[in-house]
Each structure stands twice: as structure tokens, then as C-alpha cells.
Amino acid sequence: MWRICVVCIILLILHVIRKICLKLCKRHKNVCVLVLGDLGRSPRMQYHVTSLVKEGFAVDFIGYPGSLPLKEIRENPLIRIYYLSPPLNIENKLSLFVCYVVKTLWQTFNLIWTLLHIRIPTHMLIQNPPAIPTIPICWLYCFIINSQLIIDWHNYAFTLMGLSLRNDHLFVKFARIIETYFGFKAHSHICVSEAMRNDLQLKWKIKAEVLYDRPTDKFHPISLEEKHMFLLKLSEKHNILKGKKENTTIFTEFVDNEIRLSSKRPGLIVSSTSWTEDEDFSILLNALQEYENMIVQCTCNLPDLICIITGKGPLKEFYKAIVKLKNWKHVTILTPWLENEDYPKILASADLGICLHISSSGLDLPMKVVDMFGCELPVFSYNFKCLSELVKHGQNGMTFSSDKELTAQLKMWFENFPNNNAQHMLERRFREKLHKFKQDRWHNNWTFIVLPYFKQ
Q1: Separation CA 371–CA 52 (nearest Å)
Q2: pLDDT band at 210 (very low <50, low <70, confident <90, very high)
Q3: Using CA atoms, how far apart are residues 400 and 381, in angstroms rounded to an integer?
Q4: 288-342 pLDDT, tens per residue?
Q5: Strand 79-83 to strand 123-128: parallel, antiparallel, or no bridges (unpaired)?
């Protein structure tokens, strides 16, 4: 009986608080955008923020520090950034269960404290995953202040947990229950693919609109002079990129006082990653090992390769240690961290993009491919269930399912480089498709699909 009384008292207190908040709230065009992750490494949520500001909304942007957000976000007076305090690093000191409990409690109180300091929003847009404690806390907050909660479904939290735990683990089952129950209570939903929209509707009776990722204006092809200046800047930190003469690189040179691509340059491939379990970099490393073997054994005419892998994440040091053990003479892997302003330039300077994203749910699409497409960079991407919504094999890129397939594709692409006529024809076809793809930019797409939610 006393438990029922306690519950009733709590509900009564919440009801009173809600009434008070509703009377005190002044309804302006304020939106809270929340991601329980590094703000600078959350491009889709940053794009939401920039689009909201373009449409006249004031935005409170909440997340963790780390990488710098976009310059237009940092310098816009309509945007206030609120950084959460990262959880304590206790993974190696306590049991897994205790770590999850402590981390969740830390995030819960930290998030509640931050929400008490922001402007009262009419709408709250959150990224999922992570679902716990984000969705329950934000739902309760929106209920109290009478705001609309919008969830942007990037993936499922419980499937990501299943990568490090078993799918039948108690934590995974609990996460799925929380994600389902509170996710259903949101006012509106958007998601990243048609496959995810269908899955949300079929399994959880959630109706979502598909907002495909699209490149922003900063992702575009660049001139040869811009490539040269960027590669020259990069060579200041990586000597292997320096040319034999002053103010040259191993990719570019001066001929008759004009910048030209060197006829004996190595191939430049790029891949971006968050260094997590949903990207298996052993596939790329095995393919590069075979590529090295083909050059050493002189089985075909292949150039040396420079492979630049950007990003930060928990498995970065693990893979860097593996690379150090390789005794490659023709393949070089660099792992620089590039700022937001430089990242599009490396994509526009490369000969080929590689994506190793392996979707935990099979329902999300890799945004890194969208960025590459915006720079009209051909991409070889690991194949999974719904990838065909973005990468169409043989039309705008190539897909592979094993390291052997990737090896064969690298051989095809770079054999007799840079004078492979068959490769030039294929690349021309890809770039024509990508040129059409990038015409549909992020903000136009966002205005049509998402903006109506914020006008309700």
C-alpha cells in the first residue's frame, strides 16, 4: 500500500512541476539538440543545428567535448553549446555490471543538471543511439515542460551493445525494452534509411520519415592547385608525402611553372572511421597485405599506395599496433586526425575512398560515404543488407564482402596507374553519377522532410 502512495505522491509532484513550468515558459523558437557523444564527431546532428539556425531557430546544442564542432556552429550567436562531463574511466577497475550502472547514473544526473540550465525549448531533437539514459530522461523532461520530442534514429542501441556483449545478454535485453518503450512515446521520428523506416514500423509500430544523409556545401571537388596546397600542408607533418624538390609533394610537381600531377605518383586512398566494433579493419589490412605481395612478386604493374585513415576511437591503438608489425615497402598507412575544415580536402584529393562500415542492425547507412560522394570520390564499400540504398555496385561505386574481393578491386583500380584506360572509363561513369547525387544537398532535403516537424 505504501508503495502505491509513494508513486501517487511522485506523480502529483511531477504534475505540479509541469503546471508551474507551463506557466513560466515563454514559447520562443528554441530547440534543444542533444547527442550523448562527441559533438565534433556527430556530423548529422551538427547539420541539423545549422539547418535549424538557417530557418530562424535558436539552438542549445548538448553533448560531449572532444573534437571541435563546425566553425559556423561555434561562432553563431543563436547557438549555445553545453558540454557534458565525460564519465569516469573505470572500465578496468570494476566489473562490467558496476561500470554500466555507474556510467548510467553519472550521465543521468549530468544530463538533468544541464537541461535545467538551457533555454526552454519548444522541441527537443535527440540522436539514438545511445538510448540509455537519453530517451527516458528527455521524454520526462519534454513531458514536464510540454515540449515535443523528436528522435533521429541512426541505429539501434541494443544491436550496438550486442557487438561487445551477447545478443541474449541481460543488458542487451534491458536496453531493447527501454529503447522500445520510451522510443514509441516520442512525438515524431526520422531515420536514416528506408530499411530502418520499415523495421521501426514492423517491429515497434513507430512511424518515421526517412531523411537520407546528403553532403553539405563544404564537400565538393577542388582544383589541382587546392590539392597541391593541402597536400603540401599535410607533408609538413608527414615527411613521406614530401617531394624531391622544394614546394612539391610525391603527388604533385611543377612543370613549366605549372602544378601537375606526377606521372609516377603513388595511389592515394582514404578511409574515415570511428575505430569501433562495427568496422572490421582487418579486411583492409589483409587486402593491403595481398596488394603488397603482388608488387613484391611482380605479378602486375601496380603503384605504391598511401592509405590515410582518419578518425578517433577505442580500437585505433589496437590496429596501429598491428600496422607497426607489418614490414611493407610499397604500402604506407597514415592515421592523422584532421579538423573539420581539412577533412573534405583529403577526400577531394584522394584517388579512391574505402568504407568498412558493418552495420550492427543492417539498417543504417554510412555517412562517410555520403561525404565522399559529395567530393565526387569513387568509393569501395563493405556490403550489407541496405547499402544498395546508397552505393549501387558498378554504377556509382563498388561493393565487396571479403578481403579477397577488395584485393581484386584494388588491383583492377590501380593496375597501370595512372594510365589504366578501363579504370578511367569506370571512374568517369562513377563521377557522372556522383555529380548528380551531390546536387541534392542536405539543407534542401532537410527543409522538405524535417522542418515541418518544428512548425507544429
Answers
A1: 21
A2: very high
A3: 6
A4: 999 999 999 987 889 999 999 987 777 778 888 888 888 899 999 998 878 778 8
A5: unpaired
Q: How is residue 213 written as a grid cell?
A: 544523409
C-alpha cell at 244: 624531391
Mean pLDDT of the chain: 86
CA 11 vs CA 25, 114, 141, 331: distances in Å: 21, 23, 14, 64
Residue 278 and residue 282: Cα distance in Å, rounded? 12
How far is the C-alpha of 66 from the C-alpha of 127, rounded, in Å?
18
For residues 54-67, b (16+ Cβ closer than 10 Å) or e, as one string? eeebbbbbbbbeeb
Q: Are 336 and 238 in contact (CB under 8 A)?
A: yes
> What are the residues whose beta carbons fall under 8 Å from the beta carbon of 303, sequence distance 6 or more?
264, 265, 266, 267, 414, 417, 418
Q: Does pLDDT of 450 surpass 90?
A: yes
Closest CA to 137 of 116, 159, 158: 116
Cell numbers 504534475 correspond to what residue?
Answer: 15
Buried b (16+ CB within 10 A) or exposed e, 156-190: bbbbbbbeebeeeeebbeebbebbbebbeebebbb
DSSP 13: H
Q: What are phi and psi of 82, to 5 degrees?
A: -120, 115
| Measured distance CA(14)–CA(40) in Å, rounded | 35
Nearest-10 crossing angle of helices 2-24, 134-145:
60
- Nearest CA to 152 out of 129, 180, 181 is that of 129
Instruction: Note if the pTM is more than 0.85.
Output: no
The three cell numbers of residue 167 are: 545478443
Beta strand extents in 84-160 (DSSP E only)? 123-128, 148-153
Identify the burial level of 116 via C-beta atoms within 10 angstroms of its C-beta, where 0-12 means exposed, 13-18 middle and 19 or more buried.
exposed
Does the pLDDT value for residue 98 go beyond 90? no
Question: In the prediction, which pLDDT does 324 show?
Answer: 84
